[in-house]
Amino acid sequence: MPAEVVEISTPPGQMGPGPSDNTMYVINPVKKGREYGMHKDDHGNPYVYLPPWNGPVHEPATPDAEGNFLHYENINDPRFHAAHTYAAIRYTLDVWEQYYGRPIEWYFKNYYPKAEVVILPEFENAQIGRGFIEIGTDVNKIDGTLSPFPLNFDVIAHEVGHGILFSEVGEPDADKETGEFLGFQESSGDVVSMIAILHFDSVIDEILESTSGNLYMANHLNRFAETSAVAQIRMASNNYKLSDFSDGWKDSHLLAQPLTGAIFDIFVDIFHEELVRLGAISTNLEQLSDLLEGTPEYEARLHGEFEAAYEMHASLFKEALLYSRDALATLLIETWSRLSPNYLRYTNFHQAMQRAEQALFNGLYRNIIDVNFKWRNIGTAIVGPQLPKEKGEDHSHSHGKAHNHSETAETATKPSTAVGRNSAEGSYRMRSHKSQPYARRYRESRGMEP
Ligand SMILES: [Zn+2]
User: Fold this and answer.
1) Where are the domains of the chain?
2) How far is residue 12's CA from residue 7's CA, in Å, rounded to a whole number?
């Protein structure tokens, strides 16, 4: 994909070396050695390692005369990595602050007013924890290829997503944390990232062009954290049901899949409804799509029809995609505001989304929501206990490729609630900040009561 210049909300004069601003500072430490979080000393006693880093740092990225960071063009330059990481974090926050209509604060603001963002190539993971975001390197388990996570928008946005959810939903009391809460966190990290990448014009165009608007085809949208064309860490479009975990679960990223799948399918269903409403596809095509969803015939039967419709109505497809993106994001923030982190189960998420939908859309998408949660057996299945991982056992993702990023950090750094990672290429152009939350804009545009 072509590079895109990214504009973020921080005014040029307010970004310093690092980059840094009044909410975070990026550093590239010299020989930090280990990541923040829980570690054991030489005697096997656990200790918590937390910011700030007080040692030496490599040369920071510095703004040009206009206050921008466009002069770093070599993607192997550590200063490019620093600038890209900073921009990815700020961009993700910009997107979500736009939906909220207010700033999102760090969940650790009472302990650390600013996040220390650490470029840590020797760390085979990415994580957010109390006072820090650390971005490492993906090591391909098969051929050993290294892919720096600082260049991976999805991974960075996923970590920011964890942070947003800890701020907006909260952290459970230690004895009230469920496996489903952990799965909800992982799922939400992916969804936060997905909505964020859908604000890059280049990504939107690429998705529509490469799929002709048939979003179930593998593409940049549902291939999270791509580190190569074939190696994706998780897929948003998946067939996992909650009942697949009735006997227990080992990996919260996998347990996240039924929830992510339900949310992705709701998103696609809203997109299809909007396409019908705009007259871009026929009701027949929408029904056929619903009918064949998840079956082998889907692609063969539908793709030609989508191609023909997209050929005629490309701009309506884009309009519908942006609408469903904003509708989903708004639905999500209203859902999250109705959730408690304690004893959380996916069925609570479903119920909260029903109430959010009622408040926002007055029943318009109620059926879509219910059908998709039901299909995932959310509300009927009971998740079994957490099972020990066998030695050397890795993530088993839905499409074969195994990575092992975040869970070391996630399980190890409980006191600082460190959590794992997730990717995109990218850059986009930030639209002018709208102060109104989308929900209000939506209701006003449709003449609904506020
Ligand atoms: Zn994660």
Assistant:
1) 1-450
2) 10
